[in-house]
Write a structure and sequence with these properties.
The complex is a heterodimer of chains A (about 200) and B (about 50). Chain A is mostly helical. Chain A is built from seven helices and six strands, in the order H-H-H-H-H-E-H-E-E-E-H-E-E. Classes of the chains: A mainly alpha (about 200), B mainly alpha (about 50).
Amino acid sequence: MILLNGIILGLLFGWLLARRNNRKYAVPELKREWLVWAAFAPQFLAFYYNPTRQNIDETLASAILILSQAVLLIFVWNNRQHAGLLVLGFGLLLNLLVITANGGWMPILPDTVHLLRPDAAPGSWEVGARLGFGKDIVLNASETRLWWLSDRFFKPAWIFAPAAFSLGDVFISLGAFLFLTALGMEGQIYSIHNNSQGDLYAT
Amino acid sequence: MSHKINSLKFAAGKFNFSHIRLIIMLVTLILLVLGSGAPEIGSGGGVG
């Protein structure tokens, strides 16, 4: 939810702004949208879809993560005229940097894993190994490159669900929020017309 | 009258198309955000 919050709030703020200013909510033509779908598909198989993620080799999964995020970065660059997407792209770049520097996985501290999964069975995770089927690897701070970009922030359980997230994730969520909010100020202003029968209508 | 119906049909078509475009853009943005981010969700958590 930490990432989707930016989308939900951005859509809400953008829609309210559009209504307040008597505008249509703008829907821009994004360039090369297919890049996002093509980049996410292998991630879906490697990290989200249970029947396939169990059978994908870890080396392949980490390669998928790096390559797909590189493709997403190309999409963002193609749409850099949207300031919100530039902010999102900066967050993506930060995540890609720390993931690449740590062998293709997002590092997370053992202490953070304890906070996230206090009820985890002993031996269900270990330092130096991938955490479940996700994008993270458990590493001590001394073994982590660019530790300040790792999943080091913790969102407690009382806000939807506990989660660990990175500085890059913050920029990604903020960028999505700014992008969707700005669309509420970019749409056409509604015009009121009078037809031949004297009825009023808006376009 | 037929002019009015035609205007309504045009408005309905425009309404649908813009909403389909909005949904496609939102789904693209959701995929972009999920693909770009790497948050780790704890017990009982959902996606992203």
